[in-house]
């Protein structure tokens, strides 16, 4: 068996790659900057984790660089989950962040000196601190940098983080190391902007299909909203799911309502303390509670493979957000359901929240999301085409439109007039 497949089998137990994973891994092994775009749940982590375990990497080029992969990840919670999962597989991975004391940090530094660490997770601001940069340079240990959630580097993306922009210094400070970016945001201008912002040199662009065939999309007008949510949750009794609400208040009332049905639901929003949020997230991840009722503060990088349903209690502010959030369902490839409840008001609510911020791009995304909800085109087709790809299937068999469930409302003409004015 060749090295790449051996690593996949030995550490992850998988027999085959998902689309583009193998190309992405081989590009890293070849030593060429790259940008891999795959939808949420497609399996981007393995693309930057596996190469660090392949022998091919060590014999690769006589550049003097070492064999450590540095993963840049925006959230501390996300880092810990990924590193814990890697350690469980027997992979030498670690992170350094503000939750650790000096001894723990020194420990990681020692392991880097001794060369027995394969993957190091850091937030951008820590990586770019003069101390960390100096240390990594002196050790000559870095083979490549993997920038996860790389759309954060682009002001045109949907989650811009200023600290990500400083990552362009990596190519200057480490001329021998390669930089590989990963994101689920597909639009072509954002892709090019990411490559430019990171200073990638002749990058290989790997862009996957944006369709998630195992997800059934249903987008319906909110009526008796609580009842609609309870109906969906009830038919998934005992299964894992997420309910996204637009406000903290709605999170609390929805959690209560689901509990009265005897469903194991817990809340998650920014108004709770850190430890409360963490306790609820852990309980969801470990299957002690089934339903996470949350604001969009919940979920980035959440890797729970068996989420069977995602309900949106209101319209998200962009198709990108919808793709990310609904995409958390069905990561294991099994059939899952995504239900979006929207009301004509949602558009105006978002417009008021955005008020000037984000400008034209944000408004266009909002408009596109509105059209997706109110449209009568196959949902799979509409989403895939939004991301600039062709959708060849005639009837997906997995959305309310193609399944003939759509209810038309007489006032839809009025709504679009309001929106467009
Ligand atoms: P992304 O970062 O693209 O959203 P993740 O890296 O979190 O996705 O992976 C999503 C899920 O897919 C994980 O549960 C992972 O174990 C699983 N997965 C990844 N690659 C494969 C594969 N080749 N075969 C089966 N499952 C896979
Ligand atoms: Mg990811």
UniProtKB/TrEMBL annotation:
The chain holds residues 1 to 421 of 622 of the full protein. Residues 25-204 form the Helicase ATP-binding domain. The keyword Isomerase applies. The gene is recQ_3. Its EC number is 5.6.2.4. It catalyses: Couples ATP hydrolysis with the unwinding of duplex DNA by translocating in the 3'-5' direction. It comes from the Bacteria. Belongs to the helicase family. RecQ subfamily. Keywords: ATP-binding, DNA-binding, Helicase, Hydrolase, Isomerase, Metal-binding, Nucleotide-binding. Transmembrane segments: none annotated. Residues 225-374 form the Helicase C-terminal domain. This is ATP-dependent DNA helicase RecQ.
